[in-house]
């Protein structure tokens, strides 16, 4: 196991002024987008220190989102595993059913403060799309959500939710017809309509300042969890476990714990049908460094340097890159990253549902699966804190199809 404190101390306040996390991050975009990113960076830095903006954000997180989300001791699952206590951070209880609403509330308020009338978003599992459509409805903004055609099919319930909320959902048929291609189309829209449009990016990827800005809005998860652990258990957990696609829920949990070197941080990627083949979405476990969607990070490409198709049973993890802060955490040794297969995630989906009466999103089921493994290896006086990033209602058709069940 890596020393979690290695190379940490001088760099915990990253990114630097140019948006770099060590060798990762930055801003690799066309000249047309540079003014928009500069405008966004200036606004983010301004409003992050504005007491009125922060007070409204806090009110919305409390009264609209329903924060703080509780910690929940999974007693039955803990007994089954026979080791450390498994504790869940219940982001599935947020309004709209996932952690995504934390970030979209922040970016929506920022868009309004900047005078934008239209928001766009990309989505894989639909959770970010639903959260963006929800915020746009509340703030009276036009909303367009880009979604890969395959994801439109496997997340039909969330597509309908977005439409009910007044959003236009654009089905993207290019490329692999998943999240990567949806993000490409959203970028194209932003370049074309930058004067009146705010791009609500759904994860800690993309050009600076998105990785840092999305992290800061999602870090409420980790701040709450850290305070709740000390209040309810009198100690910090032995380990944090969270799933990683682009990486927003994991960074949101990890960031406030970075200086707690005794707390191990573990990101769980989608190993799909196995890391030894090509049918997975594990950029950190099995990828290499390159540039994707405006920043330098770990990604999955072929020998010709082309981004390759990925696979995961979970639409939200089916992305060929990862946020640059995760790339830095991996190389610095402060966090480690592991893979969980489709089969293991599905088993964890059923295990949590049947043992605790909590149906996790398939994304979250990856974290549950590794949390169960880790808990079994640790003594009973330790705590493994797993981020339950979203609820599984949206995934029941995917699970049913895999199990040959027709409604």
Topology:
Layout: E1 20-21, E2 24-25, H1 34-47, H2 51-65, E3 71-73, H3 75-81, E4 85-90, H4 100-113, E5 118-123, H5 127-139, E6 142-148, H6 149-154, H7 156-164, E7 168-172, H8 179-192, E8 197-200, H9 210-218, H10 220-233, E9 239-243, H11 248-254, E10 264-272, H12 283-286, E11 288-292, E12 295-299, H13 324-332, E13 335-341, H14 342-356, H15 362-377, E14 383-388, H16 396-402
Parallel strand pairs: 4-14, 5-6, 5-8, 6-7, 9-10, 9-14, 10-13
Antiparallel strand pairs: 1-2, 3-4, 11-12
What does this structure look like?
The chain has 407 residues and is of the alpha/beta class. The protein folds into two domains: 21-63 and 100-209, Rossmann fold (3-Layer(aba) Sandwich), CATH 3.40.50.1100; 66-97 and 219-403, Rossmann fold, CATH 3.40.50.1100. The chain has helices at 34-47, 51-65, 75-81, 100-113, 127-139, 149-154, 156-164, 179-192, 210-218, 220-233, 248-254, 283-286, 324-332, 342-356, 362-377, 396-402, and strands at 20-21, 24-25, 71-73, 85-90, 118-123, 142-148, 168-172, 197-200, 239-243, 264-272, 288-292, 295-299, 335-341, 383-388. A hairpin with a 2-residue loop joins strand 11 and strand 12 (295-299). The radius of gyration is 19 Å and the shape is globular. The termini are far apart. Mean pLDDT is 93; it is low at 1-11.
């Amino acid at each position: 196991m890596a020393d979690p404190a290695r190379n940490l101390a001088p760099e915990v306040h990253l990114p630097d002024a140019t948006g770099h996390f060590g060798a990762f991050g930055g801003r690799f975009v066309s000249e047309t987008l540079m003014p928009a990113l500069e405008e966004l960076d200036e606004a983010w830095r301004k409003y992050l220190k504005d007491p009125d903006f922060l007070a409204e954000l806090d009110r919305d997180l409390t009264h609209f989102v329903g924060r703080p989300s509780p910690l929940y001791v999974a007693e039955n699952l803990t007994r089954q595993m026979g080791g450390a206590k498994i504790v869940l951070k219940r982001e599935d209880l947020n309004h709209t059913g996932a952690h995504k609403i934390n970030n979209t509330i922040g970016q929506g308020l920022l868009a309004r403060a900047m005078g934008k009338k239209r928001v766009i978003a990309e989505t894989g599992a639909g959770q970010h799309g639903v959260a963006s459509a929800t915020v746009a409805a509340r703030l009276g903004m036009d909303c367009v959500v880009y979604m890969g055609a395959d994801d439109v099919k496997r997340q039909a319930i969330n597509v309908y939710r977005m439409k009910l909320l007044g959003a236009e959902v654009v089905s993207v048929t290019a490329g692999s017809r998943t999240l990567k291609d949806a993000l490409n189309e959203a970028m194209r829209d932003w370049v074309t309509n930058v004067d009146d449009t705010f791009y609500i990016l759904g994860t800690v990827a993309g050009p600076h300042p998105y990785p840092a800005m999305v992290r800061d809005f999602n870090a409420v998860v980790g701040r709450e969890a850290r305070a709740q652990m000390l209040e309810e258990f009198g100690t910090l957990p032995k380990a944090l476990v969270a799933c990683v696609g682009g990486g927003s829920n994991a960074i949101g949990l990890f960031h406030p714990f970075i200086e707690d070197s005794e707390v191990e941080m573990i990101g769980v990627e989608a190993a799909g049908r196995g890391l030894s083949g090509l049918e997975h979405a594990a950029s950190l476990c099995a990828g290499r460094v390159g540039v994707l969607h405006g920043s330098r990070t770990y990604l999955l490409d072929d020998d010709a340097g082309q981004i390759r198709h990925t696979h995961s049973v979970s639409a939200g993890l089916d992305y060929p890159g990862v946020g640059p802060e995760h790339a830095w955490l991996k190389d610095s040794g402060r966090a480690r990253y592991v893979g969980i297969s489709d089969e293991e995630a599905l088993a964890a989906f059923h295990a949590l549902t049947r043992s605790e009466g909590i149906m996790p999103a398939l994304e979250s089921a990856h974290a549950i699966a590794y949390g169960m493994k880790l808990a079994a290896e640790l003594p009973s006086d330790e705590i493994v804190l797993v981020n339950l990033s979203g609820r599984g209602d949206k995934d029941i058709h995917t699970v049913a199809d895999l199990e040959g069940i027709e409604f």
